[in-house]
Amino acid sequence: MAHLFIAATITTSVAAANDELVKLALPLYQVEKTIEYRRLDNGLEVRLLPLAQRQSVAIASQFAVGSRNESQGQTGYAHLFEHMLFKGSQNAPGDSYSQTMSALSGRFNASTFFDYTNYYLNLPSNALELALWLEADRFIRPSLTTDTVKNQQQTVLEEMATTIDNQPYIRPAMEFLLKQVQGTPYGHAVIGSKTDIEQATPESLNQFHQTYYRPDAMQLSIVGDIPNSTNKWIDDNFGQWIPPTHSQPRFTPLTVNRETITAEIVDERGPWPGLLLAWHTVGKTHQDAAALELVEAYLLQSRASLLAQSSLVDSEQLFYYSVPLTMEQFGVMNLVMVPRAHVSLDQLSLNITALIDQLANHSVDDATLTQLKRDWLQRQLSRLDNDLNLAISLSATQERDRLSPLTGPWERIQAVSNQDLQRVVKTYLQAGYVRLDLLPPWYIRWGKALLEWLPMGWSDSLEEQVL
């Protein structure tokens, strides 16, 4: 009888937790019901989300074009072209776009990734008609001159130098990771190569635009105070945009080697050793993507992650960070760690392997899984309070979630079981990983090795003086 009572208690507790999540997710369903969905005859996907008590609108436009679309000799074109779209169009030459938006107190920006390029802005709702006209003009009729191309080439090269080449370890580490998927659409950096950027011309960039900037590759989302004439303005400005006759490129999931690979790089500018670990996972369209997202949060991402908890007492790393990379057909879980003076890189690697083995051998309990789902849900709900973030999220909708952009991802998270977490850990994390040791000059390595042999109190004291 006792066993039956315990089983019934656990079942009741799980049901109560599920009921709590269902109630917590209600705002996603309520907001989603108010979205107006349209697909224009030319294939352009439109989502309008009117929100009460707003005096502004957020506009997000995402194109299914990124670095994976680039051909040999044209790496970095997607990112460079993103810059060009702020530098003039047929009816708004030069800096007219930026000047107009600034005059309207508008906030605007863009970003490029492997799979997509997105553009977003926030401005007063009484300027929406003008904004849609400007957006359509630059997306459909960009004006690329020799001077503006040269100017933006220099801007991109300066960005490359600042964020990559002038930072210790970054360039060789990036190239090493990309080499693991060499020969695939994901085998080169989003920012491209210096040579390809320098050799870009207005003609080659215009050809890139004509090939990949097309209405059937675009998602347009508008959130906030939406005037009644908005659909007419969209039709007037985007409706006559004719897609090219060639079809959009199609990509397939990457087949990767998950055996353990180890290597090291030495950078004379490196101030201290570091450890880079990476695990090849899956793309966002894969059936295991939701479970892996929760696993990453549990292991590395959240404040209550296993790694964070293990660092609360006698931390063996000075700091760590992890930025998950989830593309459409490929994913990477990664972790960079900087050791304490008395801790070796080998020890840090063993610590992470132990956490992964722990999760593979003993999956999380129901309460922990519920908390992981609750945390995921809270992050999604927070987007409802930020019109621009919400618009960007809507424009990044997967085709399978076309009519359920908010609840589709949640329902996949909700369906993840304890067994799913354990299975994906064994399949994608225990199978093998990439380890790259980031090493400073020999004299720093020698000093660090010496500190590892000293008593902990001595090494900690010297660590503070050195760092």
From TrEMBL:
Record has Protease as a keyword: yes
Domain of life: Bacteria
Keywords on record: Hydrolase, Metalloprotease, Protease, Zinc
One Pfam family matching this protein: Peptidase_M16_C
Family as reported in the entry's similarity comment: Belongs to the peptidase M16 family.
Entries under InterPro entries matching the protein: Metalloenz_LuxS/M16, Pept_M16_N, Peptidase_M16, Peptidase_M16_C
Record's protein name: Peptidase M16
Cited Gene3D superfamilies: Metalloenzyme, LuxS/M16 peptidase-like
Domain Peptidase M16 C-terminal intervals: 200-374
Annotated Peptidase M16 N-terminal domain residues: 53-167
Keyword Hydrolase recorded: yes
